[in-house]
Amino acid sequence: MNNLLLKKSTPHIVALLIFVIISLVYFSPVLEGKRLHSTDTVNAIGMSKETRDFRKQTSKESLWTNSMFGGMPTFQISVKHKSSVLRYVRKIFELGLPIPANYFLLYAIGFYILLLVLGINPWLSIPGAIAFAFSSYFFIIIGVGHFGKVYTIAFMAPILAGIILVFRKKYLWGGILTTLFLTLEILSNHPQMTYYFALFVSILIIAEFIHKIKEKQVFSFFKSIGVIAIAGIIAVSVNITSLWSTYEYGKETIRGKSELTDNKSNKTTGLDKDYITQWSYGIGETFSLMIPNVKGGETEHLGKSEKALKKVDPQYRQSIANMNHYWGDQPFTSGPTYVGAFIIFLFILGLFIVKGRFKWALLIATILSILLAWGKNFMGFTDLFIDYFPLYDKFRAVASILVIAELTIPLLAMLTLKNIYEKPDIIKEKRKYFFIALSLTAGLSLLFYLLPSTFFNFFSSQELSQFDVYRKSGVDIAKLNMFISNIEAARIFIFKSDAIRSFWFIIIGATLLYLFSIKKINKTIFIISLIIITIIDLALIDKRYLNKEDFRPKREMQCFVPFPPKKTDFQILESEMNEHPELDEIIGEAVNKYKKENKRVTKTQLTVIPFRELNKITDYRVLNLTVSIFQDAGTSYLHKSIGGYHGAKLKRYQELYEYHISKNNFNVLNMLNTKYIIFNDKDKMPQAQRNFEALGSVWFVDNYKFVDNADKEIKALDNFNPGSTVIIDKRFKNYIKNYRTEKDSLSSIKLIDYKPNHLTYKSETNKRELAVFSEIYYKNGWNAYVDGNLTDYFRANYVLRAMIIPKGKHTIEFKFEPKSYFIGEKISTISLILLFILLIGGLGFEIKTEIKHRK
User: Taking the complete model, does pTM exceed 0.85, yes or no?
Assistant: First the structure.
C-alpha cells in the first residue's frame, strides 16, 4: 500500500520540486537576499503612509486618510480585515518561497491542479503548468507590483478545477476546492479580474446546462449549481467586509453614476466611456499572443535595441534612439500579452482534434476576451457590454481582459497534447488539420517576416498625426521622410526578429509532435523536450520585462525611503514650525525615539520623521504643480495632498478637479485649505509658496445660497467667496431651516485634535452659527457629534461638510464609523469559523472514507 501511495505521489512531488527550482532560478536574486523594486509598490507606500503610521501607533484601522484627494476611505488602499488570517493559508501553497518566487509557484500549482482534474497525465501537466505560469503578462504585473492582480489570476485555475469536479458529481472535493480558492480569490481584492473570470465561468455553465438538457440530467445540473452557490455564499461571507465597503464606496467614486448632465454620450452608470477604453488593445496588436514584438513590446526608447539601431543611418541614430520602442495605440504599456508561439499552434490544432463542450466554451471565452480587449477599436461590441452587462462599466483598461485568453489558450493547448499523448496516431489521422494549424501559425509568422510592410504599419496613430503636423509646419520634407524611413527600418528589424523566432519555435514544437507520433521519441523525452521548449520560449521573453535589474539589495530596501523630502518639503516644514513653536520639542523627541527603536537608521529615514509629527498637529493641504496632480503619491507620503495616486477617486472630487482645481480656481483651493502650493519658478526650480487665503480646517459663513442640482452647484463655484458664502443643494434645505444668517465676529471654532478617522473641534458662539468644514463629504460612515450627541450635517460647496453649530461652548466631533466595516467584520468572523469547520470536516470525512475503502 505504501509503495502504491509513493508511486502515485511521485509525479506530484517531482512537479513541486520542478516548480520551486524554476521559481528560484528565474528569481535568483532572492537567493542573494535581494528584493523586488517596483513602481506600483513604491506608490502604494506613498499613498498608504498615513494609514500605516496610524496602524503602527494605535494597532487599529483608520479606514480613512486625508493624505490624498482631500480625503477618502482606505478600503482600496490598506485595510486589514478578519479575513486577512487566510493569508496564512495562502502561504501554505507558497511553500515559504520569498516574493516574487512565490508568485510563479502559485501560478504553476493552480494550473497543475486544473490539468489533473481534467484527467491530464501528471507528467504531461508539468510543462502545461510551466507554460501557463510563464505567460508574459503574468510576469509584467509582478514587475510593476500589481500583486493583488497576481493572486487573483493565480486562483482562477483551481477555482475552475473545483467547479468542473462539482459538475462531475464529485460534490465534496469540488465544493471544498471551489470554496477555498474562491475565498482566496476574493481576498486578493481585484474585482476586475474576478469579474472577467466570472464571465468565463458563465460561458462554461451555459455549455454545461445545454449538455445536461441533452443528457436529461437537469436535476444533476441544478444540484451542482447549488453546491457552487453555497461555495460562493461562504466565500462572499468571509470577505463581506471588503465587498460591502467596496460596493458602498464604489457608488460614490468615478465608477458610480455622475449627477452632472453634460457630455451624456460619453457617460455611463459607471466610468466614462473614453476612460474605460483608454487602454484598448489594437486589432493587429492581438498577434502579440504569438509574436511578442508585433508592436514593439514595451514603452521604452528604441535605443534599448542596439541591433535595431544598426539598421539606422548613423546621422539619425541619436534622435531615433529616443523614439518609442512601442508603436501600438495604447497610451503606454509595460509589455505584450504573449502566451507562446507553440502554445498558439496547439490551441489552433485543438480546435480540430479536441472534442466536447469544454472546447467550445474555451473557444467562445477566448474570442470574447479578444473582442472586448479591442475596446474603442471595436466600439459597437464594447458599447453592448457597457450598456447591458451589469458592472462592466465599473472597470477600465479593457485590454486586461486578455487574462482570460491567457487561461483558455494554454488550457485547450494542453487538452490537445492530452489527445496526442494518449493516442499518438491522431497526428496521422488528422494530418490535414495538423498542416492547417501549422500554416495558420508558422506559415503566418514566416509571411510576416518576409512581407512585414504588407500587413503592418510601424507607426502609432499619434505619431502619424504628429508627422502630418511637421509636414504642414514647413520642415524639410526630404529629411523628415528620411527620418521616418529610418524609424521604420529599426522597427521592422525588431518585428522580424520576433516573427522568425516564433516561426522556429512552432516548427521545432511541431517536429517534436511528429517524432512522438511516429514513435521516434518516447514519452519521457517528449515531456522533457516540452519543458525545455516552453522555458526557453516564454522565460526569455519574460526576461525582457522582469529580470535581475529589477531587484535591489536587502540592506538598500530596508533603508529605502520612497519619497525623500525635497527642498520644497523643508520649506513647508520650516513655515509650519515657525507657526507652531511646540513642534520643535515634539519632533526632537520623535527623532530620538525612532533612533532607539531602530538600530540601523539612515539620515534620509530621519528626515521623514518631522513630517509624520507635523501631520498629527497641523492641518493643511498641499497642491503640487510640479508633478501630474492625479498621478502623484510622493506628496501624499509627506503631506495631506490635494492630488494623489489611486484609480478609485470620489466622483465629485474628480469633477471638482476637472471643473475648478485644474483651472486654478483659488476660491476652490482656499475652501480645500490649500495652504501651500509647490510650483516651478521662472528658472524651473521648485518652490513652495504659502497661500495666505486658505480658509483652514473650519470656518463660519455669513450667507448661504441654495441651488437646484449638481450642475448648478458646481457652476456656482465659478465665482463665490467661500469665506462668507456657502453653496447648498436644495435637497439639504431642511437641515438649516429657521437659521438666520447673522454672523457674530466673536464666535470661534477650531480643530483641537486630529486623527484621520476622528476630528475634534471646539466652538464658542453667542448664537447658532453655520460652519463649513474643509473635509470631504462621504455619507457612508462619517457621523457628527455635538457634546457626544449624534447630530445632522450635510454636503456643501459640492464636496465639503457643513452643519449648524448650537449657541454656547461645545465639542464637535466627526468620527468615521462605517457600518459596512464593523458589522461586516462580525459576519466575516462567523463565516471564517464556518469555513474552517467545513474544510476540516470535509477533509476528515474524505480521509475516513478512504481508510474504510482500503480496509
Answer: yes
Alpha helices in 251-356 (DSSP H): 273-276, 306-309, 317-320, 341-353
User: Per DSSP, what are the bridge partners of residue 786?
Assistant: 789, 812
Cα dihedral sign, 196-200-201-203: positive
Q: Which helix (H) or strand (E) holds 445?
A: helix 444-450
pLDDT single digits (tens) 749-807: 999 999 999 999 999 998 889 999 999 999 999 999 999 999 999 999 999 999 999 99
Which is it for strands 698-700 and 769-776: parallel, antiparallel or unpaired? antiparallel
Helix (H, G, I), strand (E, B) or coil at 522: coil
Instruction: Please say whether the beta carbons of 398 and 382 come within 8 A.
Output: yes
Distance CA 576, CA 619 (A): 10
Please write the tens of the pLDDT for every residue from 795-848: 999 999 999 999 999 999 999 999 999 999 999 999 999 999 988 888 787 777
Given a contact cutoff of 8 angstroms between Cβ atoms, the answer to whether 811 and 787 are in contact is yes
Q: Residue 801, SS3?
A: strand
pLDDT at 64 over 60: yes
CA gap 642, 69 in Å, rounded: 5
Give the tens place of pLDDT for each residue, 461-514. Answer: 999 999 998 888 888 888 889 999 999 999 999 999 999 999 999 999 999 999
Q: Which residue has the cell 500589481?
A: 146
Greatest C-alpha distance within the chain = 99
Query: What's CA 734's distance to the chain center, in Å?
Result: 42
Which residues partner with 428 through β-bridges?
none
Alpha carbons 369 and 347: distance in angstroms, whole number: 15
CA-to-CA separations, 476 to 128, 462, 483, in angstroms, rounded = 55, 21, 11
Whether residue 1 has pLDDT greater than 60: no
Could you give phi then psi for residue 521, rounded to 5 degrees? Answer: -135, 150
Alpha helices in 317-378 (DSSP H): 317-320, 341-353, 357-373
State the Cα angle at 678 between 673 and 684, rounded to 5°: 160
Strand order in the sheet with 782-786: 748-755, 758-765, 808-816, 782-786, 789-791
782 sits in which H/E element? strand 782-786
Q: What is the pLDDT of residues 687-742, one digit of tens each?
A: 999 999 999 999 999 899 999 999 999 999 999 999 999 999 999 999 988 787 77
* Closest C-alpha to 185, from 231, 118, 217: 231
Grid cell for residue 682? 521662472
Residue the block writes with cell 508603436: 327
Examine the pLDDT at 536 and tell me if it is beyond 60.
Answer: yes
Give dist(CA 656, CA 774) in Å, integer: 14
* Cα angle 700, 705, 711; round to 5: 120
Cα separation, 172 vs 166, in Å, equals 8
Residue 239 near residue 186 (C-beta atoms within 8 A) = yes
- Secondary structure (3-state) at 763: strand
Task: Classify residue 806 by its DSSP letter.
Answer: P
- State residue 558's pLDDT score: 67
Please provide the DSSP assignment of 579-593 as one string. Answer: H-TTHHHHHHHHHHH
Residues 602-636: tens digit of each pLDDT: 888 888 888 888 888 888 999 999 999 999 999 99
C-alpha cell at 204: 462554461
The sign of the CA dihedral 348, 354, 355, 356 is: negative
How large is the C-alpha radius of gyration of the chain? Answer: 30
CA distance 805 to 765: 8
C-alpha cell, 533: 521548449
Length of the chain: 855
| pLDDT over 70 at 855, yes or no | no
Considering only CA atoms, which of 20, 118, 2 is closest in space to residue 10? Answer: 2
SS3 readout for 610-655: HHHHHHHHCCCEEEECCCCHHHCCHHHHHCCECCCCCCCCEHHHHH
